[in-house]
Amino acid sequence: MSTMSNPYRGFRFPAEIINQAVWLYHCFSLSLREVELILAARGIVVSYETIREWSLRFGRTFAKSLRRRRPQPGDKWFLDEVFVRIRGKLHYLWRAVDQHGNVLDVLLQGRRNKTAAKRFFRKLLKGLCYVPRVIVTDKLGSYGAAKREILPGVEHRQSRYLNNRCEVSHQPTRRRERHMRRFKSVRHAQQFLSINTPIHNHFQLRRHRLSASEYRAARDHAFATWREVAGLPS
How many other CB atoms are there within 10 angstroms of residue 52's CB atom? Predict the structure, then answer.
């Protein structure tokens, strides 16, 4: 990597330490202070505020690279929204996953009406650049109204029971929300989830469906891709 293109240029700590801090923060339900403590146990003295800056600056870059490198998701999308309370006001976190459990995108909005559903559909289509074969949602009317305008030729299945895959995908967000003692603002929540979701998703290998050898191969590939994205030697 050339000096001019080195994103770590000017930082006091080497790339390996910055990469480790960002990985710890986004792959596990750890607070910034807990990451600071883990690094301190290894003789690395760095403040949690510095880790916060690293997670924002480098996490955003890593997340974008992982999105570009991921294989094309499945053609069956599960969509759902869950409420998130921020400073006493109710908001809705829209999320989409494919049939393999891969999170496609998230969007935090103040409403769950037709306009909000259309905005989420457009964000999904812009990021993925292809149309699904079928979408599965609950019985919220906003999905059907938006789908008729944005995805008129796509099959739409509505049921309160068929959408469990997407509802389960909200659990990591709920854990982080509790650990962070709720999100501080809409901007903070959207910014964190946009970074955290692709990084956390990259290391979710569904171990229960893989043999030991397959899991080790998938794990090694995930770490190799992560190191490549972070600009570290393999």
Answer: 15
Listed residue (204, 234, 190, 229) closest to 63, CA to CA? 229
- Euclidean distance between CA atoms 158 and 143, whole angstroms: 9
Q: In total, how many domains does the chain have?
A: 2
Instruction: For residues 165 and 5, give the distance between their C-alpha atoms in angstroms, rounded to a whole number.
Output: 41
List, in order, residues 6 or more apart from 159 with CB less than 8 Å away. Answer: 136, 138, 139
Task: Compute the distance between CA of residue 134 and CA of residue 213 in angstroms, rounded to an integer.
Answer: 33
Catalogue the E-assigned strands of 138-216.
155-158
Query: Both 35 and 83 in a single domain?
Result: no
> Does the residue 6 lie in any domain?
no
pLDDT tens-digit readout, 139-184? 889 999 999 999 998 999 988 777 666 667 777 888 888 888 788 8
Domain with 116, as residue range(s), is 76-201
- Helix-helix angle 48-69:186-202, to 10 degrees: 60
Tokens at 60, concatenated: 């955003």
The Cα–Cα gap between 128 and 188 comes to: 24
Which pTM was predicted?
Answer: 0.83
pLDDT digits (tens, 9 = 90+) for 81-104: 888 888 889 999 999 998 888 889
